[in-house]
Amino acid sequence: MSHVQKDYQALKQCVDALAPLLPRIEATGQLMVERLHAGRTVYACGNGGSATDSMHLCEELVGRYRGERRPLPAVSLNTDSSVLTCIANDYGFDQIFARQIEALGRAEDILVGFSTSGNSENIRRAFQAARSKGLTTILLTGKDGGSIREIADHSIIIPSQNTARIQELHTFILHAWLELVENEDWN
User: Which residues make Cβ contacts (< 8 Å) with residue 7, sequence separation at least 6?
Assistant: First the structure.
């Protein structure tokens, strides 16, 4: 069996193992819809490939996924390089997302953290800051969920040890959420 065939088989197994999590995926997506209808903001963050998941979710909410609708408030905490470098320089890399949540977050907003391990210190600190400000936190992770799952309001843990498979299913989840958003009336 080739490497591509092995990767395909591993992805199929992960997709099949995701079935028990579908109600949780739908519930967190509905929560996002409710909060967006109430005028709240979705924030997202991640490191490396998970940073691009953060940006992907937010750009689709502000722009559009497939259908025409009004723009929705969403901010990827990964995108402002001057803010990131200022905070990293003055407070340390572990504070790059928490400091932004402290500045921007409001009660009833949502923070989505993408972390394949669930152990990223800067995500953990962002979740702690979010909790203290009354934001709802949603963790998309894998492996055993890591330490962040203990402080997240909602955790969706992809049943895999493979970072690539975890990230592939994170993309499925954010697209599933966007489908729920786009099926709403935003007039």
Answer: 164
Does residue 44 belong to any structural domain of this protein?
yes
174 part of a folded domain:
yes
Range of the domain at 130: 39-182
Q: Tens digit of pLDDT for each residue in 137-158?
A: 999 999 999 999 999 999 999 9
Specify the residue for token string 């992907």: 56
Per DSSP, the three-state class of 112 is: strand
Between strands 42-46 and 154-158, the pairing is unpaired
pLDDT digits (tens, 9 = 90+) for 28-79: 999 999 999 999 999 999 999 999 999 999 999 999 999 899 999 999 999 9
Q: Angle at which helices 163-182 and 49-62 pack, to 10 degrees? A: 10
Q: Evaluate whether residue 164 is within a structural domain.
A: yes
